Amino acid sequence: MASAEVGSPRIERRERDGEPAPEERDDGERRHRRDDERHRDRDRERDRTDSYRPARQEKRRPTPPVKTEEEKQAIAKAEYEKLLSMRSGGTYIPPARLRALQAQITDKSSKEYQRLMWEALKKSINGLINKVNYSNIKHIVPELFGENLIKGRGLFCRSIMKAQAASLPFTPVFAAMAAIVNTKLPAVGELLVKRLVISFRKGFKRSDKAVCVSSTTFLAHLINHQVAHERLAGQMLLLLLHKPTDDSVEIAVNFMREVGQHLQDMQPAIALAVWDQLRNVLHEADIDKRVQYMIEVLFQVRKDDFKDNPPIKEELDLVEEEDQITHMVDLDGDIDVQDGLNIFKYDPQWEEHEEAYKKLKAEILGEGSDYEDDDDDEDESSEEEENEEEKAMEIKDQSNTDLVNLRRTIYLTVMSSIDPEEAVHKLLRVNLPPGQEPELPSMIVEICSQEKTFSKFHGLIGERFAKLNRLWTSLFEDSFADYYNKIHRYETNRLRNVARFFAHLLATDAIGWHVLSVIHLNEEETTSSSRIFIKILFQDIAEEIGMAKLQARMKDEILQPSFLGLFPRDNARNIRFSINYFTSIGMGALTEASREYLQNMPKPALPAPAAADSDSDPKGPESSQSQRHTTS
């Protein structure tokens, strides 16, 4: 039957018509058949068009085009921005991938590169602050100056405040570090003081004891290092004790324990007021027994002269007194904490600013090598200095060449500076021989006097110097007295510039108003030059601070002894001269007290008649003459 089936006509018809047999219908055979048909179609097409197409195995991938450096940078920047946005949204980014992208971005003018440098600066500053302690502060500070603290001053202040709040026992170390930075970069120290004051104000308003304690502790040690003025301590203590509560008194006691000895040494009047207030709180205020005991312990600490609470520990006393820069920040004043310095901002002049800081860093670290010296190095340097002094004693220059060179250096430094900050920074680098410090204020005033018109540029230089520390303040105050005594030697234009220079210093409280005690406004002790000087001085002060503030300053009870020369009380003639003078220059409002005093001044008694002598005739020669006529 099988043979019959194979040879049957049905199978032959299927083969003739091309129909597949039932056993050929599986998938594998159909796939092979389709492949054969495709190959046949390809061959027919090749024969028809007479063109050659390579087979699949003969094809090669085309070489991709070479990307330029700009295209690579653009791709890397775009990918980096994408990763940052993903990370800010909470997506995990592998650090290796992020570092690889960062390594590809090398265009310093791009926003992405500057953001990378900003993040690196933030990590570096934070790491150095977290590493500092009593033993390594001398090594950490030079590394800290190696970072761009001008650009990163906001980061520095935020990081050091956060670290101090987390570890209060290390507050003296952080304060010592801030004091060293403040000597070279005063803007950083001032910003730190301002932010701490704002932090204290916010904590006090919100009754946040932890914030108040950390802020007051940090400020106390900054005041001990004379980064902030003692007046700020007095304002804070009196605020805390004005309406005493258990927390406010406790904060005040802890604050006074840290700053008390320094306050007593520098501002005894403020310290006495604080002690009186604490005594009143102890006896009259309704406070807890625990707080009362704290006040009593504080009085015992005062009695022991703060022997366990020195202002500055010996190992942290790293700043010379003449290098200290004190900032005057009032508790109730308008304070700008510059929060924008905490975040990244694109800088179009990034490379120029980095190059400028490199020069500044070289100057700072060149002088800051003292922090890294060991005791042996210090001994050797002191011996070398002694040898140099001995050699200098052998030869004495009688031609004042050194003084002339010093004045020339100061002059060229001021004239080559673009702004007052640059001038002050450069002048602080000038090596002043011992005893020659008064030459600097004198030269600044001389340079100012030689200008055709007064330039506030010189006034701002004098103001910044006078506010640096007490040494420069006293030198500028002495300079005022010196120039007033010799003002008659100057022509009118130079006299005008000198008067306006000192008017700016007085208006900005850079020097004390007690310097006016050298002026004796009367006809005998003034000249035409000195009267012109006084006129320009007071008119400029009134223009800067306003007549109302000038009147209030003239009525200050503490300053009244210093104003007795301006508004005399000795005799009516001098009082009238002073009144007429100020009225003639448009300052009559300042003489109200003098007018009232003159009006109520007792009139001088008439002289008593002279006693008649026995030998003399009381009626004089005329009466004796008439008497002779009568007798005749």
TrEMBL record:
Residues 10-73 have a biased composition (Basic and acidic residues). GO terms for biological process: mRNA splicing, via spliceosome. It is found in: Nucleus. Residues 369-389 have a biased composition (Acidic residues). Residues 405-521 form the MI domain. Signal peptide: none annotated. Its main location: nucleus. Residues 622-632 have a biased composition (Polar residues). GO terms for cellular component: catalytic step 2 spliceosome. This is Pre-mRNA-splicing factor CWC22. The lineage of its organism: Eukaryota, Fungi, Dikarya, Ascomycota, Pezizomycotina.
